[in-house]
Amino acid sequence: MQFQLTDEQRALQSAVRSYLRDRFGPAQVRELYENPDSEGIPASLWSALGEQGWLAVLVPEENDGIGLGLLDASVLAREFGAGTVPGPWLGTVLASEAIRLAGSKEQQSERLPGIAAGETKGAVALLTQGSSPDPANAPATASGGSLSGRLDLVEYASAADLLVVAAQDGLYLVDPRGAGVTITSHESRDRTTRLDTVTLDGAPGEKLDGSSPDVLQQLLDAAAVLVANDLVGIARKALTDTVEYDKTRVQFGKPVGSFQAIKHELADLHIAITFAEHAATYAAYAADVDAPDRALAASIAKAKAADAADAATAAMIQFHGGIGYTWEHDTHFYFKRCKRLQGAYGDAAQHRERIAKLAIDRAS
Most-buried pick from 30, 69, 187, 284 (CB within 10 A)? Predict the structure, then answer.
């Protein structure tokens, strides 16, 4: 099957890339690294996400969104990975998707327009940290509409206006500033995000009426696909910058990129990243068309993307030589973001285990 992005998706890709190149580049990312106590959400960037419709990508048109699919959202995620873009875009988009998938018409009409406009920032807690991407590993417990539990490493919970929490019996909307909610912020090595622990102690929760294990699994798979696309964006940018640097870095009178050992390793990385890019793109497409292998495709994408980004960012540091190990160079932006995202919504080993289970179940 020949597959490629549509003209509209390529135009979206170009628009995001141009914006980041002209208005939010490495210098702005470095400002966040130099100021770890800030909220971590550049105001001009967040305004642009709302104005350009990049927060409304999965919101239906009847709720003031643009009603596109996961593949379109993945185009955004890949460019955001390449630019190590900060902010709660992922959490906000996943919150909107949870409400779209499981919310009642009233819940959708009440919550989604604000998300689409950038007026509502979202955060999600869908899995117990370190667990495999399965609905059984929801991090909270519910009793009579009240939620309890410790939600670790929730991105931007302290800045969120709305928190989507998974419990054993479904998805709930929680007010992050409401009763029974305590938020503790933590320093993150990857300063393109902000991480918090959310403790729920009888916090009121508004259940999304259409919640089910299948819906939560669909949401977990969408999260894995978006993270996979972020990771392949990181990987491709890391490889591209490394190749450009090694064309001009001279050792023993020659560009180091001309040395056979380096050329071969970079060529192998290119192949691995290309396969991961295709897997991440197909996984998003499979979700949009509800393909029979959509779950399998999501796990293949996350496993391949995590491995490719890990190899590419490590090679980026090594092949930049001494400068690659310094705070002053941008290599650590990509390496640290990669390390954070490798385990998000299931690490490579957990997804390979799921791939094996899905393949065995399908064969039997």
Answer: 284
